[in-house]
Structure formats: structure tokens, C-alpha cells
Design brief:
The structure is a homodimer. Chain A is an alpha/beta fold. Chain A has 13 helices and 12 strands. Chain A binds a DNA duplex through helix 2 and helix 4.
DNA sequence: CTGAAAGCGCTTACAG
DNA sequence: CTGAAAGCGCTTACAG
């Protein structure tokens, strides 16, 4: 049998109430009483039963995270960072993914209804923003880690997509590239629009406009980057650089460029977006707009935990700045 | 106020006991009573409070997973697969990582003592096997997803490291390569020993022995693969193939080979191990021993869930076979 | 087939 | 500063 608060109380010669007070750090306690109780707790190796505490207190000390999938590198980084913050606070992190579509969402909803956790961090699975919004409206503390450029009416953490793309433009101009191909993500995403706008802005500020034919659409996968470049080359487009909306597509872009006999960066410079750890391992290493991914995960988790302690969740997005990492794909 | 079992009972004109029976699918029930109760449950949108159920039943319907980190691709795949199985069963998955060392382990131990979950899946953080063993000995259901080639005295899921390496040897011999460089992982790991043994076995079965100078040690990182090849070339070793103990090192190996002007596979063929999704995206695409990673995660989760239902955990490892994926890095 | 009652192990007003 | 008692929302013998 596990040791309970009752055992501790008996052994210390106090009531369960007093033990509970020691456990929860209430201050209306005689110091010697508290010390004695603490000694007994150590002696017996007592740890309060999490199930009973959750039940009695009405909160679980567990945070949930809802994600499209765990197998995307970007998401892995975010989750890892968030977990570290959550663990530090003595909380647990319950992870839900939506790889099984409606079935997944139904399961998740059950856990919400069952009040299985105190708050929620979200990297939005496609098309679930309204649902998340409704959870928030019903009183569940929610923080969105926003990789899509939404503008939700609840707490969120985002990055400076426009400024990041602007930095990419400045860099390419600085190394003398004037006809960049742009491989974008799905233009329905706000982040994609921001990246397109920031990049164009950088060129127009330098008195150069972008050839509209030189913007092609990808879907953030390696394959789509490869295909985009293949199409551009087939159409005999000429370009001296490629600005790619994420690193995965950028590796596809570089693969296709090399297949076509083009040298990177001599013939074509390549700039990615994300700057995941793997960007340093491509060939050549990839210049990329750095997203503060870990910081975003941490900030989201911290905001959520703070809300449990009474600090209201922020009503405007927490925006963390991108930076710019230069590697050999632009400065070989 | 959330709706409780009491509300349902009142509205249906039965006792809470009866509602509980309907909820838990006991069969000693009048069909019409059950139907009526179910109707009320739907009408009120009642979902049992997970905290109360966990407390009353003494089990949480939550499984935990202990991991070194979420940012390694191999682990991401395992966790994703395990989560899907766990979610399907209506369970939640609590994820703990040990990126913060002792601090992390202390936090995790608290959750164990607090009985915050019913069972544990583990990808062993370095040096914690004895601790995991002790949790098992104290009665916590544990299943190890074994990427290290341990032989634990509790349930585990593993793969055929020796046979996988044997297949790599056969393939290289089949394409006429006779002097392979081997870039291994840390030889303290059982899986590394198995891969070394299987590979050597394949060559000796063909009447060829491996040059001991041609086995160099890496640490499973991209950089170590790169460094290993750099050292080998510097030492003027000659080889016509490289067998690398994982895909990450293999990309490092390929990068260094290309830097040295060697063509893949014409001058040097490369075989990796793992066959992560990214292996199809390297340049050239990587031939690799395929580990059934998803299947391992699923099998571990299934075994754990089955143990809750009364099926004892297996006492010998569940071993899932590797396969062999041929790509352009050996057959360009 | 059904219900009244005890119990799971804590927390928290309330009273002193 | 401390304790007795109620209560959190379920499950589960036990009795009928």
C-alpha cells in the first residue's frame, strides 16, 4: 500500500489538514510543527497521490498540446521547448496529434470534456481554428503557437515573417543578386503572405521590382521545392537566386538545381526559412531566416502557466523576432 | 457548472450506480433502462469527469513516455506511432524528456510516485536502464522501445540489427564492392555490436574478410560521419563503399565524400541504417537498412495497453524485422 | 436487474 | 496556529 496523508498525519501526531498545509506551503503554521511534518514526509517517502489532488483541487497539473503531427522537425522543436518549461513547473504534458483526422479530433474532444488537463497549447491542425476558438470561448486557457500567420482572438505566439523575408531580400541584394525566384508556401496562410510581402518590399525599396513570373507555389514539402525549380527551369526562366519559404523545400530546390548542373551559390544562391538545426547539414549549408522556434514554444508555455497563477493571458500576439543566418548557399 | 453523473441519474430517474453501469458497459442491465440512460447522456452532453474517474478507479487512463529528447527524427516517429495507438484506446499520452538531466529525472520520479499514469513506454535516456528496471520491479508496467540493443529483464521491442547489417553486406557484395569502410556508432551499444557482427558475417560468408583498419567510430551525429570519412581519407585508406550505422551519419559521410571529389555511387557506394523518411531526400537518395520504427512504437503501445486488460507483458523481446531499401546511393 | 452507502485521498471553508 | 467535517464525482462491494 502506498503511504497516504493519513499515515503522515498519524505518525507526526497532527491532523490531515495540517499535513495538507505543509504540503501546500500555507504560512499560518508553527515552524516547529511544519518541520516535524516535513521530517515525517521524508522519512516515509510520502508523495501526494496526483489523482486525489487533481480531484480534490479541481485541477490536474497537466497541460495538453494539440498538434498536426510529431514527425515534422519544426513541431518537434516547439514541443521540446514547451515540455521543458512545463516540466520545470512540475506539470505534465499530454500530447495529442491529429494524424487520424476526425477520429483524432473526437478523441481529443472527449479529453477536453472530461477536464483531463488545465490548459492547452496548440500548433493548429489544418482547419481547426474555429474549434480551438470555441474551446477558448468556453473558458479553457489556450495559447496558439502560430506558424500560419493567423490573427486569433485569443493568446498566441508568432514571429516576424515580414521582417525575416525583408532580411532575406537585403542579403540577396547585398551579394548582387537581382532576379530571385521565390518558392512560396500555400498562399492562404498569413505567414506566406507576410513573407511574400516582406521580400517584395526589400526589392522595391532598392528600386527593383520582382518579376511576377518568378514566384511559384510549393506546399512546404521537399518534393514541392524540387518540382517548383524543375518547372521554372523547364519554362526557361532565368534567375540568380531562390528565396524559399521553408528549409524543407530549400533542400528540394538545391537538389534540383544541382541536378540541372547549376552551381550553388555561384550560379544560383539559395535562402531558406526556419533555420532548423538541419540547415547547417545541407549541401552546401543553407543560409536561412531563423525562426525563434524554441523561444516560441517556451513563451507559449510560460504564458499558459502564468495564467494558472492569475496573470491574464495576453490579448495581443507575443511576437518574437526572426534573425538571419548566413551560410555557404549564398556566400560559397 | 459541468453536468455530473448525479444530473444524469436524476433526469433518467435511476440511481448513480445504474448510470455508472451504463457508462462502463456492465451487462446486468435492462436494455430499456440502459437506452433511456444513454438518451439522457446524449441529451445533456454528459462526459464523466476524468479526474473523478481516475481517483475512484485508481487508474488514470493515461500512459507516459520517457525519452531523451523529442527532436531526434527516430524518436519522433516512435512517439507518433505510439500516440496513435494510445489515442485509439481513448488513453492520453504524457510525454517526459530528459534534456535537463538530473532535474528532469527528479521531476519524472515525482510523477511516478504520484501515480500520475498507469504504464510507461521508454526510449532509454543514457544510463537510466537500472532505474527503469527498478520501476518495473516495483510494479509499474513498463515496455522498452529498444534502440540500443539492451537485453532487459522486462518487456521490450527491438529489431533485427544483425540481419539488417547482413543484408547491407549482401547488397554491397552483389554490386561488386569489396572494400567497405564501416562507420559505426558507440561500440558500447548492443545494436552497434550486432550491426558490426552482421556486416562482417556477410563478408566472411562470401569468403572475404574486412580490413580492421576500415572500421571507424562515430557517435550517430551528422558531424561525426563527416569527420570519420575525413579521417579515413586523410589516412589514405582506400574503399569503394561505406556502411554507416545510421542515416544522420550517412548524410555527413556523403557530404564529405563529395567535398573530396568522390562520386556516389560510382567511386564510393553508401548504405545507411534507419531509413528515416528523410533518406529519400538526400543527394543522392540513400540506400538504407529500414528499421520498422512505426511498428516498434505501435507494438510497444499495444503490449502496454493489453497488459492493462490482463494480458501479461511479454518476457522476451518483441523483435520486428528490418527490411532493405535500395536507392541511388548504391545503384546510381 | 437495481439502489443505498461506503470509499477512493486529498483540499478547504468553518470554527475555535 | 490547528482540527473536525464536508465535499470533490465517480466506482464498487453488498444487499435485495
Amino acid at each position: 500500500m502506498a503511504v497516504t496523508i493519513r499515515d503522515v498525519a498519524q505518525r507526526a501526531g497532527v491532523s490531515k489538514t495540517t499535513v495538507s498545509r505543509v504540503l501546500n506551503g500555507r504560512d499560518e503554521l508553527d515552524a516547529r510543527t511544519a518541520a516535524r511534518v516535513r521530517a515525517v514526509i521524508d522519512e516515509l517517502g510520502y508523495v501526494p497521490n496526483a489523482r486525489a489532488v487533481a480531484f480534490a483541487r479541481g485541477s490536474t497539473r497537466v497541460v495538453a498540446m494539440l498538434l498536426p503531427s510529431l514527425t515534422w522537425p519544426w513541431i518537434g522543436e516547439v514541443v521540446q521547448a514547451a515540455i521543458e518549461v512545463v516540466e520545470d513547473a512540475g506539470y505534465g504534458m499530454l500530447v495529442f496529434t491529429t494524424t487520424q483526422g476526425d477520429q483524432s479530433m473526437r478523441r481529443f474532444t472527449e479529453h477536453v470534456s472530461a477536464r483531463a488537463f488545465d490548459g492547452l497549447l496548440v500548433v493548429e491542425p489544418e482547419g481547426t481554428l474555429d474549434y480551438i476558438q470555441s474551446l477558448h470561448d468556453e473558458g479553457l486557457p489556450v495559447v496558439l503557437v502560430d506558424d500560419r500567420g493567423h490573427e486569433p482572438r485569443f493568446a498566441s505566439v508568432a514571429t516576424t515573417n515580414r521582417l525575416g523575408a525583408l532580411a532575406a531580400a537585403h542579403h540577396l541584394l547585398a551579394i548582387g543578386r537581382t532576379r530571385p525566384l521565390v518558392v512560396s508556401g500555400d498562399p492562404r496562410f498569413g505567414c506566406v503572405q507576410d513573407r511574400l510581402a516582406g521580400f517584395a518590399e526589400g526589392f522595391s525599396a532598392a528600386g527593383r521590382s520582382l518579376d511576377p513570373l518568378l514566384t511559384v507555389e510549393g506546399d512546404f514539402t521537399h518534393e514541392s521545392g524540387q518540382a517548383a525549380v524543375a518547372r521554372a527551369l523547364e519554362a526557361h526562366l532565368t534567375f540568380d537566386a531562390v528565396f524559399v519559404h521553408n528549409d524543407s523545400m530549400a533542400t528540394g530546390v538545391m537538389a534540383e538545381l544541382r541536378r540541372s548542373g547549376l552551381r550553388i551559390p555561384d550560379d544560383v544562391a539559395v535562402v531558406g526559412f526556419d533555420d532548423l538545426p538541419s540547415a547547417a547539414q545541407t549541401e552546401p549549408p543553407l543560409t536561412s531566416v531563423h525562426q525563434p522556434i524554441r523561444e516560441m514554444g517556451q513563451a507559449a508555455a510560460r504564458a499558459l502557466l502564468a495564467s494558472f497563477a492569475g496573470t491574464p493571458l495576453p490579448t495581443t500576439p507575443i511576437v518574437l523576432p526572426t534573425s538571419f543566418t548566413v551560410r555557404a548557399s549564398t556566400t560559397g
